[in-house]
Amino acid sequence: MAKTPLISVVDDDESVRESLQSLLRSVGYAVKVFASAQEFLELNHWGDINCLILDVRMPGMTGIELHRHLVENHCEIPCIFITAHASDEEARSQALRGGAVDYLIKPFSEDALLNAVRNALSSK
User: Fold this and answer.
1) Are the C-beta atoms of residues 104 and 113 closer than 8 Å to each other?
2) pTM score, whole prediction
């Protein structure tokens, strides 16, 4: 029997965490949500995660900094970045250069997110 993919969401906006968790669970994924990069880092067993959805801008460590930290520690989880800041081309460029599977601008469609997750899971 195939293991259910685990998707983690790191976003400081509670409503975004809740809506993504609900959407992802509705299509059969296991989901863990975190309010900050620090909270995620405290998890300490990242190998179980099949896909990571990261908010670009968060207080403290940003999503891009978190992704860089994971890569530097040889933890290459496929990442999807989400942001409400469409004009931040530097962040988009950094994310994509760093190996992001996708970079979505809020508000994005459910289909866009689910397609990005499927792409991330097939890249692992």
Assistant:
1) yes
2) 0.93
